[in-house]
Specification:
The complex is a heterodimer of chains A (328) and B (466). Chain A is α/β, with parallel strands linked by helices. Chain A has eleven helices and 13 strands. Chain B has 18 helices and no strands. The N and C termini of chain B lie far apart (55 Å). The chains are: A alpha/beta (328), B mainly alpha (466). The interface between A and B is large, with 50 and 39 residues.
Chain lengths: 328, 466
Amino acid sequence: MVDELQAPRLGKPQQGVAGPFYRRYMSAAIEISDLVKTFGRTRALDGLELQVRTGEVHGFLGPNGSGKSTTIRVLLGLLRADSGDVRLLGGDPWREAAGLHKRLAYVPGDVNLWPNLSGGEVIDLLGRLRGGLDERRRAELLERFDLDPTKKGRTYSKGNRQKVALVAALSSDVELLILDEPTSGLDPLMEAVFQECIAEVTGQGRTVLLSSHILAQVEALCDRLTIIRLGRSIETGSMADLRHLTRTSIACETRSPATGLTELAGVHDLVVEGTRARFQVDTGELDEAITHLTRFGIRTLTSQPPTLEELFLRHYGDELAAAGVDES
Amino acid sequence: MTTLAGTATLTRFGFRRERFALVLWALAGAFVYYSQAVGVDIAYPTQPELDAVAASMEGNAAMIAMAGPPRALDTIGGQVAFQASAFGMIVAGLMSMFVIGRHTRANEETGRDELIRSSVVGRHAPFAAAAIIATVANVLYGAVVALSLISYGLAAAGSIALGIGATCAGLVFAAVALLAAQITENTRTVYGITGAAIGAAYVLRAVGDVGSGALSWLSPLGWGQAMRPYDGEIWWPALLSLAVAVAVGLAALRVLDHRDVGAGVFPPRPGPARAPQGLLGEFGLAWRLQRGTLVGWSVGLFLGGVAFGTIGNDVGDLLGDVDIGELLGQESASMVDAFYAMAAAMLAMIGSAYTISSALRPRAEEAAGHLEPLLSTALTRIRWIAGHAVITLAGSALVLALAGLGMGLMYGIIADDMAQVPRMLGATLVYLPAAWVLGGLTRSCSASCRGSPPPPGSAWPSASSS
């Protein structure tokens, strides 16, 4: 169910000068409600909801084929929505596409470059078509991403093609970045550079919509996130809100064998082997469980905070189970 | 034989991919010949009528340049061989070009080849499979042509000679395409090189047939016609075609052995780190993407014009008492003018192939996924398509003008009459609106057929131009 929150409980502090400037004009960079898009008999988007607030990094998660890229293409005015309400930067993405595109930059997950054009030429071309790019930033990004701009499109590797699109997008002076799995094919070093760049971008008060499969990336970067499945939003909130819905994994060793854990509320998957115990507990019931354990004398205790991965698996667990994958 | 491992599987797979296309090509080829037989029968039902038209055609330099050497024109078979064989062989050449391109370089360019070669597939297997598919396709093509003509009631020997001629010409161009596919990195250039070879073969035989005939022996199309179908067939020119096809094919194999998969012969050069001002914008991009093709067509048609320009004085020698002007419905036109009117129409027809290929370019851009990053900028769909449309329209004008210029310059020099230059320019440019209409039709057709349900990313509603 969509749980649209009125205020983020945990959000990164907004700094920088540009933030208030953009926020003066609108409170939401992207507002989608009840969006439907069909391709023939396939219902790709089925009442999708998405709210991205100005100045935030919004994670957009979902399994393959759940409709993330379709949503983004609707936002870019490349696809016409069948029904529903879509507002992008206060405008209609279909009718005002070109005007709105001056204020955003897009990085696709699969970058196709012209085989005969060099990377530098593509960056300049896309920048000019968008209305100009920041020369200093362009040079700096080429350096940071370690990208050779003189190579021709056909000779770049997948990761390097991705870098061309990233440099083109990040060196333009725009309010909104729409990133569709932007780091697919990048090595961990470049992934780190990407995360730094996004942190800088948000520092300037810009908004980012980040569709990603890399959960660590989403956890590190995003203020809020929306999870979709089969073309519908099934969860929205800040990371803290969503963590609340998850379980913490506990592994401990006690002086005497721990008993009575099964009776506690919110404890799952309990395994007791003598003085060792492993279990998961709903994050809201954590205090009670730990208090209970202290009665047996805690020797060692490791607790694993809930990861996005768990959240993700919980939502798609039934799909995985159907496919024969063990959820645990 | 390990370098050929997997050839059988790849060949079967290739036929699976081409099963409809090959049948359609063969039927199209048969139609070219068969329709001529039917047409001649309907137009000239009695022998005296056929004799009369044969006499007029024998001295018609324009028709000879367009079709081939006039032989046995007072028979239906001779008429079919005269009017259909050049075009029938060109269709076979185009079929070979596309089959080879799709099964060699196109696979490498898209990376499919890498996937295939990572399995139990020998180094030469994809090459061999493509060659086998093209060979079978051409044999099928020739067989359908021959059988259709025999079934119409034409002499078996002549029909078989026509079929073999088409097969052999197709094989030569298949070998040329195979070689081109080894040399260049992209499929578009493979088609460019092979298309240029077909065009050159056509012009060589046109000039040769009107002149002394020597140049026709440099043309694979000329070899097919040298088999003299329905006119005392001679068979050895087929061996000449086969020998050339094998030699070119072996050369292609040698190149294949010396290059990396995915690469061409020439190592990629670095490009500029910054875009030149001229590239920045929709027109600049469209120009950059299309300029290579335009230059190729411009040079080709200019040379084609020059070739026709050289024929001018031969036209008079060929002519008997026949009044071509009357035949062509241009009473006052001199015979040379009538010839050049026909030549201009022919060049314009070839030139409009440029218009069509240029009008198809936006579709190819879209299919390759290049449109998405462009339209995510402030570029509108209309401006994007307008950039390409301007190139198509202006490029067509350039190509036709250069054809006329080449013809006028050359004939002007030979006839010592430079007033021919503006006349010939006008003669080709008068077809410009017609070429534009074809371009517009192509564009609106390609814009309105979206094909099968689109994967996200290739699903634009139509954007029409011109």
